[in-house]
Amino acid sequence: MGEKKWMDISQPLSDNIGHWPGDTPFRYETAFTKETTGSVNIGRMMTSLHTGTHVDAPFHFDNDGERILDMDIGVFIGRARVVDVSTADVIDAKLLENLQIGDVERLLLKTAIPNIPERFPERIPLLAPDLAPFLAERGVVLLGVDVPSVDQLDSKDMETHHALYANGISILENLMLDKVDEGEYELIALPLPLKDGDGSPVRAVIRPL
In this structure, are residues 170 and 80 in contact, taking their beta carbons and an 8 Å threshold? Predict the structure, then answer.
């Protein structure tokens, strides 16, 4: 039996990808063509750091928080568990306790929101702040979700972001999990080395264990 293949669970970055209302949309262009330079095509892009599949650095919601390059890179590589919570409108500690998630370092939540990169959702399930201490007790260092945020889309207090940070849990958002079964995987979701970044796009990939 051959080695199991990696699956890309990232939103493809394109000019029609959905983005936070009022934020910088993604744009790509071939700034210099091979015909112009005589040798190569050279592209350039403009984007918010929170468009598509991305990691939040604590500085995103805390002026004293870590920037991307301050974060432990090992958090974004290793064993992960995908859990289906698509029947729930509220995802809290009680729900995950009932699901008996066990001990896990990286938890990826598959919600009911369809993975349509071109469409920014109008609403998402509520991820309750009490998730944070519950997950920390089980050794979780990374929470991944297939929606744009771990807080409600109109949140100003960012309570769940702050709770996760206070409990040492990093945040990975806008995954593509619709075609992924529950189970154990190896995850790689490396942010770019942006020294002052409050977030970073990632290429998130998994393969079954």
Answer: no
Q: What percent of the chain has pLDDT over 70?
A: 99
CA distance 132 to 166: 8
Per-residue pLDDT at 109: 98
Task: State what percent of residues in the chain have pLDDT above 90.
Answer: 97
Helix or strand holding residue 161 (H, E): helix 159-166
pLDDT digits (tens, 9 = 90+) for 128-174: 999 999 999 999 999 999 999 999 999 999 999 999 999 999 999 99
Please state, in angstroms and as integers, the Cα–Cα distance from residue 139 to each residue in 81, 87, 153, 184, 189, following that order: 13, 25, 27, 16, 19
The H or E element that residue 163 is part of is: helix 159-166
Cβ neighbour number for residue 48 with a 10 Å cutoff: 16
- Told to judge if 60 belongs to the known catalytic residues of this protein, a careful annotator would answer yes
Q: How many CB atoms lie within 10 A of CB 175?
A: 27
Q: Please, what's the b/e burial string for 129-155 (b: 16 or more CB within 10 A of its CB; e: otherwise)?
A: bebbebbbeeebbbbbbbbbbbbbeee
Pairwise CA distance, residues 79 & 173, whole Å: 17
Catalytic one of 50, 60, 161, 162: 60
pLDDT, tens digit (0-9, with 9 covering 90-100), for 17-52:
999 999 999 999 999 999 999 999 999 999 999 999
